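FIELD: query
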Amino acid sequence: MSFQPLAERLRPKSLDEYIGQRHLVGPGAVIRRMIESGNIASFILWGPPGVGKTTLARIIAEQIKVPFYTLSAVTSGVKDVREVLDRCQKDARSVFVKGRPILFIDEIHRFNKSQQDSLLGAVENGTVTLIGATTENPSFEVIRPLLSRAQVYVLQSLDKDDLLQLLDHAINTDDIFKDREVRVEETEALLRFSGGDARKLLNILDLLHQSLGEKEPFVLNDKVVTERLQQNPMAFDKDGEMHYDIISAFIKSIRGSDPDAAVYWLARLIAGGEDPKFIARRLCISAAEDIGLANPNAMLLANATFDMINKIGWPEGRIPLSECAIYLATSPKSNSAYNAINTALQLVEQTGNAPVPLHLRNAPTKLMKQLGYGRDYMYAHDYPGHFVRQQYMPDELQGTQLWAPQDNAAEAQMAARQQARWNPQPPKTEER
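FIELD: result
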């Protein structure tokens, strides 16, 4: 029996075996078209762990039959990058190699500026095709010159159908299940603990199998999965994805107004060697998403914390992180801004490009003025209270409300101010 983890044994070798990411590799999708044409441009795969970033890069190299080099940004330095690029240059000059070599860099967001700079020349002159993988937003972590030379493709967490397809594939193809009775009774806990991560799902199956006697049937139900993971919560986390569970617990503790839990999970992140900028970015997001308009100062403090981390680093950086986490956890909460933009984006998707009313349009040319652009626009500052009633929404969306104020002092005041502006109550007349 193979001692390789189940996730490695079942790693897909072709696009036909690859599960998920249909928007990138499905029929007619962009990466599939690149593979079919044999012309691979440099790109960065951005998505959560366990969704197939490394696997997709390997499939591409296998399909188009070019040399494939890998570097991990965690363990590689500038010297390692240069050595690999030298080999790629030799491949590019060789008559025996057809096509540009592919350099795959895992966790490219962990490369510092000088390491990323060392890639630029080879990418720009076509010596190598760069494929990067990252769980972090590339716009924050990848230098602009490199980003301009590499398209970013977003990978999504696997959905329920994807995970069930993977489960079926594992049970029906892997040797550990071949000579054993298998009973799949329930999958809800398995899917919940997997969290859209293929590797986690397969690691859980591995863990369940290892707990069985030689002749014992493999039974999959919610009770078995929950009990086994509670007994050994780290066993299915073989590649360090617990990091994402801890950051999730950290943010949810802030959202739930528990400063003690927030500081505990912050300590876990710090003790685990987490990048302080990663933590500070999450605090900025939480300040906007979870505290929002209930306390706009939260966003200012979170942004100041991020700036301070860049200035002072470790170990003192733990102090502003703790201050910010406690402040956010104890602040009043509102997600009205978060809800408003999500609702607005859905509305835009449903209604398309509704025309801008003529009076709101810019009129930089004489022709535009003749066509009525900007005509009858009322400049708010010319009116009492710097307000005048006029139409701002497209014609077909007039009266649509996207922001719904929530039950906190700050938004109650904002809502009252808006009510007074847009729907003033007529003055009461005394009865005679």
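FIELD: remark
The radius of gyration is 27 Å.
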